[in-house]
């Protein structure tokens, strides 16, 4: 247990990008505490115990948890970590636990001052070629764009004529349309401009906000249009005052935007919709040495 804790705390700390002056260091709703630990692939029951036994008493701000929504079950690949990043529905039924266990974790962590940040996978659903039942029992067929657990159908995915690549997948990262309108490694790309898709994603966000989470780390934001993200975030509820958040408090968002330089899509495009993960942090530290 001690080894797992040191790995989690020493290696997997989340580094949130800074977007301006000193105020940007502050994480809201944490009373000056700034460290978010990423408990990757932990079960909800174990995270609840970790909040009570270690994170709360030692002044941690929050925990980024693995995606809680229903996902594929990739038994043939040995149940790898990446199955969590292929949604089947937005039901809270995952390898980490069920909805009851998720709610219990959020409540127990909030009670000791540790906030929960959800790793949100909303750019896409599962990969092409996959079908069957998800971790919560929902049926799906990716090739037919059929996800009845949401429900999503063919019209909820990015129209083929908006993707300029020959096979519908991303190959050219110098082409903004391709990066944002084509399929990322064969994953079925949700049509973020659709009002229906925006509502379904925001419904998922609102469900966990009402449970008591503080915010979201949005996966693959680089592959979503900033305007679509802004529209989705604009549909979210205020944070739950029963969880100890002030009245009118807004969800905390930070976005995965891989920007190593040399490409047209930059982190600066996303500063208007939240913080960003700084992938050049190590380089910038090295430059200062």
TrEMBL record:
Residues 34-280 form the Glycosyl hydrolase family 13 catalytic domain. The keyword Hydrolase applies. Residues 1-24 form the signal peptide. It is an enzyme of class 3 (hydrolase). It catalyses: Endohydrolysis of (1->4)-alpha-D-glucosidic linkages in polysaccharides containing three or more (1->4)-alpha-linked D-glucose units. Residues 151-170 are annotated as: Disordered. Its cofactor is chloride; Ca(2+). It comes from the Eukaryota. Its EC number is 3.2.1.1. Monomer. Belongs to the glycosyl hydrolase 13 family. This is alpha-amylase.
